[in-house]
Amino acid sequence: MATIYEVSKLAGVSLATVSRVMNNNARVSDKTKQKVLDAMAELGYRPNSIARSLASSRSDSIGILVSELHGPFFGQMMAGIESELRAAGKHVIITTGHSEEDKEKDGIEFLISRNCDAIIAHVEAVSDEYLIELNEGKTPVYLMSRFVEELSEKCISLDNELGGYLATKAIIDNGHQKIAYIAGPQFKADASNRLLGHKRALKESNIEFNEDLFFIGDFKETGGSDGLRYLTKQNEQFTALVCANDEMASGAMKYAREHGFRLPEGLSIIGFDNVIFANYLYPTLTTIDNPVNSMGHMAAKLVLKDVYQKKKLEIERVFEPTLINRHSVANHNN
Amino acid sequence: MATIYEVSKLAGVSLATVSRVMNNNARVSDKTKQKVLDAMAELGYRPNSIARSLASSRSDSIGILVSELHGPFFGQMMAGIESELRAAGKHVIITTGHSEEDKEKDGIEFLISRNCDAIIAHVEAVSDEYLIELNEGKTPVYLMSRFVEELSEKCISLDNELGGYLATKAIIDNGHQKIAYIAGPQFKADASNRLLGHKRALKESNIEFNEDLFFIGDFKETGGSDGLRYLTKQNEQFTALVCANDEMASGAMKYAREHGFRLPEGLSIIGFDNVIFANYLYPTLTTIDNPVNSMGHMAAKLVLKDVYQKKKLEIERVFEPTLINRHSVANHNN
DNA sequence: TTGAAACTTCGTAAATGGTGGCCATTAATT
DNA sequence: AATTAATGGCCACCATTTACGAAGTTTCAA
């Protein structure tokens, strides 16, 4: 690969001038500029971004840490971040944390060691303290779907409590009283906040929270099927099932259909997240919209504003979930 | 952040010795080694992988280029690659090409400029010639889901023609004769090969390919719904619809249900890819399994073998698709 | 017992491919 | 002639790797 040195030689200018042309941060006459560009083209020169980054301690790349690379949730999130940043000429370096503390830390340290200009992380296993300390380092860290008081300026989050409330409220408004709940892993803040919202909605309608109608799943399809199997064995009737995410809802729907429930007449189900395929399930899934893609865009904008000094960007840090009515909830009123 | 220099000072040894301890590629006495390790721990030292990469022109990271970050297909692919590489202590840098030539090239050049030790790319828009030339550079490039004769050693691909054949064959075996086809964008090799397979199956059963029962979609849900709308307006009867991927199949199913088709009695639909949610559609989607996750693992193994000299890995370069029978195809025999 | 060969262990310094500050030089403008 | 714009030339610097070679230590045959 050609180096800047060869370019300068071919163009008959100095190293500094080539660097100036590349970064166009200093005045260079059009004529010399053209000579340099021609030389670059002729040599097929591509700046070595590693060397560049080492010398300037910038990298024009942003690290992203997600729990998993697959699944509709993270896909939408990454896509949102990437498209916004790419439009601004920045690149993205993605790695995973698998919701395990060690791996999350490892991933973050990798991103830091790659001189990322900023990190956007969706972390679930590391502590708030760790994140606070991390933020004192030279690489700013932004958090997706997590709210840490001390870092409130750097969090893009969803009001999960409100979402949990809206889901259960929608069920209650349709006349249900016996309501089961399949939660997500409680160490995840999203999951525990959704549960809080669920409890608030119950309380507001004077429905008692019933431990026998409660199951903690894994946020995957199996969590939904396992959960529903467990719940049906508790000798407690219920007409509706609130699932803490759509994947568990789809698992529950499948299990329900295979075990003779009529949907939604026999069992109403509501999900959370409004992932793409919620609209393709049968019956189409009533759920709570989680605007992850927009949140990804917003996180990227926040980085552009803070780190790259793009001034006039409007930042919105807390997103509100909304109810998406489809056909998986039956009306039991009248 | 502490540097190697500070570590060497604290440990009372030279820079080189610290480097040796880090890479343990040269003999260092246990005593000095311990001193160095202690100093590292005390300073919380983390090697700067950028500097390291510049000096050694290795990076222990592999570039991945996918078309999109979202969607079940790429998610599974990335996850497969990443988990295999991570287990080997390598990191992954992901970027996107959006199926556009410029962006794909840009992405590849970014990865090269980041000193990736290898690139695993799922590219659709760039030409074979470009890829061949690319491979003469110092960064080896591996191709996912694409077969280029000259680079056959570096391609992990699916026999899409066979898959296309199997799908249509399955439909024909169920007694269908009037078969519509919604293809993917024909500049994508996957899509055009699947179509070839479809035509082969038709020919084998002496069914003529009918232009009025053919639509080119975008590989997304809209492609399926738009396609089915178009097809129903052609005044040609058909009892089965072959879709070149599951997402279009789901779009078609939705459109069909909304327009009064009974599934699968009124219209049989088969997909391709066997993405996660195919199993959650209603009716569950009969489709062709595309083992992307395994292919991702295999691509990673290939890199480990070629680039990092892990010898005893078994490599399988061409994967065979298989038919997954579920409930979206009705039997019209007898 | 001894001394040279062989091997360990570790330091020095160059190299990696750029950035960016400073000052000097040259050319164009006023 | 003085000012200003457009370069060139130099050099320190970024954090690390790695050839080279200099000590120090072992081994072993004479």
Helices and strands in order:
2 copies of one chain form a homodimer.
Chain A: H1 4-11, H2 15-23, H3 30-43, H4 49-56, E1 61-66, H5 72-87, E2 91-96, H6 101-113, E3 118-121, H7 128-134, E4 141-144, E5 155-158, H8 160-173, E6 179-183, H9 189-204, E7 214-216, H10 221-232, E8 240-243, H11 246-258, E9 268-270, E10 287-289, H12 292-308, E11 318-319, E12 322-324
Parallel strand pairs in A: 1-2, 1-3, 3-4, 4-5, 5-11, 6-7, 6-8, 8-9
Antiparallel strand pairs in A: 10-12
Chain B binds a DNA duplex (30 and 30 nucleotides) through residues 3-5, 13-20, 22-23, 25-29, 32, 47-57.
Q: How would you sum up this structure, described in words?
A:
Two copies of one chain form a homodimer. Chain A is an alpha/beta fold and 334 residues long. Chain A has three domains: 4-47, lambda repressor-like DNA-binding domains (434 Repressor (Amino-terminal Domain)), CATH 1.10.260.40; 58-158 and 292-319, Response regulator (Rossmann fold); 160-290, Rossmann fold. Chain A contains twelve helices and twelve strands. In chain A, helix 5 links the parallel strand 1 and strand 2. The mean pLDDT of chain A is 92. Chains A and B meet through helix 4, helix 5, strand 2, helix 6 and helix 11 of A and helix 4, helix 5, strand 2, helix 6 and helix 11 of B. The structure holds a DNA duplex (30 and 30 nucleotides). Chains A, B: GO terms for molecular function: DNA-binding transcription factor activity; transcription cis-regulatory region binding. Chains A, B: Residues 2-56 form the HTH lacI-type domain.
